[in-house]
Amino acid sequence: MLNIAVLVSGSGTNLQAIIDAIESGSIHGARICLVLSNNYGAYALERAKRAGIDAKVLSPGDFASRDHFNEALQDEVTGSGADLVVLAGFLCVIPEKMVKAYENRIINIHPSLIPSFCGTGYYGLKVHEAALERGVRISGATVHFVDSGTDTGPIILQKAVEVASDDTPKSLQRRIMEQAEWKILPEAIDMIATGRVRVEGRKVTII
Ligand code: GRF
Q1: Are the C-beta atoms of 15 and 45 separated by less than 8 Å?
Q2: What is the pLDDT along the chain (207 residues), one digit of tens a residue?
Q3: Residue 42 CA: which ligand 1 atom is closest?
Q4: Which of 69, 104, 171, 192 has the least C-beta neighbours within 10 A?
Q5: Catalytic residue flag (residue 144)
Q6: Which of 15, 19, 116, 177 has most ligand 1 atoms within 8 Å of CB, for mutation?
Q7: Multiple choice CATH, 1-102, 3.10.20.30, 3.40.50.170, 3.40.50.620, 3.40.1260.10
Q8: Would you call 98 helix, strand, or coil by DSSP?
Q9: How far does the centroid of ligand 1 lie from the alpha carbon of residue 149, in Å?
């Protein structure tokens, strides 16, 4: 059984997709051992509660320094017995020490086709604003392992989504969530839980 810690900051629709996929059996051999938010107001906490999952808040503002927060974050994840950490809209940077300790065991969902519209500053609606500004016809989502860079780790899955001529950042964000994120994040977790993902350097092989 793969223990998953899901780290969240916001509405938690990706968390919900994982919960639903575990319940429906499309994710095999995995359970969520912890939901952790950096934000007391995250609706994701309510979703966790409703699903009977242990949910915790660690807010950076409650700690004397970022280092103290980072330490508490890693302790909490380690203490939960997580084998895999899923960043599902988590807006804090994962500390270097934790990235090393969990090499190829932290995954992130990013709402674009990496390497487009990713890296520092590309989060939330900013990603979709940039895609529309550039006039791309196709965008999408990417699930990747987390390394020490921003959105630079090995790519596990990607799914393309068409951009409509009348899209706003919000409508594009929603379509990418519905058509890509909520599908490929649970799919990637299932592939990891069933041992089908091999990583060599920056290349991922699905077996
Ligand atoms: C998603 O768009 C995800 O790709 C990004 O943050 C958003 C989180 O949404 N990293 P939710 O909290 O899962 O609803």
Answers
A1: no
A2: 999 999 999 999 999 999 999 999 999 999 999 999 999 999 999 999 999 998 999 999 999 999 999 999 999 999 999 999 999 999 999 999 999 999 999 999 999 999 999 999 999 999 999 999 999 999 999 999 999 999 999 999 999 999 999 999 999 999 999 999 999 999 999 999 999 999 999 999 999
A3: 12
A4: 171
A5: no
A6: 177
A7: 3.40.50.170
A8: helix
A9: 19
Q: What is the DSSP string of 144-201?
A: EE--SSSS-SPEEEEEEEEPPTT--HHHHHHHHIIIIIHHHHHHHHHHHHTT-EEEET
The single residue of 68, 110, 128, 144 carrying the catalytic annotation is: 110
Shortest-distance Cα residue to atom 6 of ligand 1: 89
What is the model's pTM?
0.97
Q: Which two tokens stand for residue 40?
A: 């007391």
Look at domain 108-207 and name its CATH class: alpha beta
